[in-house]
Amino acid sequence: MTATVTTTSAQPAPAGITFPDGFVWGAATASYQIEGAAREDGRGPSIWDTFSRTPGKVHAGHTGDVACDHYHRYAEDVALMADLGLGAYRFSVAWPRIQPDGTGPVNVRGLDFYDRLTDELLAKGINPVVTLYHWDLPQTLEDRGGWANRETAEAFAEYAQIVHRRLGDRVATWTTLNEPWCSAYLGYGSGIHAPGVQDPAKAFQAAHHLNLAHGLAARALRSAGAQNISITLNPCQVAPLDPANPADVDAARLIDGVANRIFFDPLLLGKYPSDVLEHIARITDPSFIRDGDEAIINAPLDVLGINFYTPSYVRALPGAPGALDYPGSQGIAFRPPVGPVTDMNWQIEPASLTRLLTRIHRDYPGTPLMITENGAAYPEGPGENGEVQDLRRIEYIDAHLRACHDALAEGVDLRGYFAWSLMDNFEWAEGYAKRFGIVHVDYTTQQRVLKDSAKWYREVIRRNGLE
User: Fold this and answer.
1) Which has the closest alpha carbon to 213: 142, 148, 157?
2) Which of 92, 230, 235, 330 sees the fewest Cβ atoms within 10 Å?
3) Which pTM was predicted?
């Protein structure tokens, strides 16, 4: 189908736009969210297997044991990708499939699955984009301290080399980590994600060790001949509620440091910001950041992945408890969403994506960017005719693609866009209650149905632009 963005009666529909030649159009998923087969072919337990079985942690006690059964249905799913005309597919490798204990013996059967998936993608003309870590840490490593333990970063570099040895002859783009902010702050700060720890000191230790893991893995991959190395961040487009209020500006800077610059600066500039180090020191002894670590983290990047969904607005408010996922944010209040929201209650503000991309372009010049996730959760399912009419998702993606185009017009080196998600899946602590997919999944029958957004996206890809 062809759809346009809903507009008020007083305004015409936006004019058509075209993206640059070679712009990459893709879709993304993550291993624990879609694969299932949690106990098959030698896969070991991950922190999400444990967390999802902990009462009260995941909606309705849902787990990823079966998920979308992609482990068995990958050929069917790749055929759907080919039907949509995807140029690339971003998927993650499950570390516990490759090394069930996180270190030690390699599980060849786990590698075999990603070998088959990679060949199937290439046979259909779809470039595989591999993410080595999308949150499913082997439980054995967590039992030894997880990301709060420096040894996990060293183990990750070994794991990265193992996967590259098997797939490196066919995979050009390697993403080390997905959203280390979530792994550190949701996993060890607020505890709403696996492993469910609430400890601000461990949250900062995890953030650093994730950065270090990237640097160690990036260097190992480069030395092994990897062509394109990336990391995917989910930077927070944070703004002061009142830009004229110095206290609000200071609050926004603190949150920006904890959310963004703690990752951007060591990755791209080779040094943690001084104000961030001072903030960490107020929470815990920062001696876990050792001499030479920042140079390791500052491994050359070929592209920086950006995941974006919603902005944040903050203000100074004495006595405010702050947020556990921003350690040390006491005295700062986060404004509730205003205006239209998605099913996740996330505010929709496409212009904030343009501001984020131009900020990165300005502050970290020469960094090629890729939108590696963007999308919206809405509950629409099949109607009486079997079709899924999800106009709101079309409007969301359309508006954010226009925001991307605005950033391109301002000189941002933006090279592609991956829709999140290819299909409905296990949405972490939300279980199966939230649907981000452009493909509907019936979790009982495992039937896949292209939503109207998938059909619309197919036309976007075909035109390399919007009407």
Assistant:
1) 157
2) 330
3) 0.97
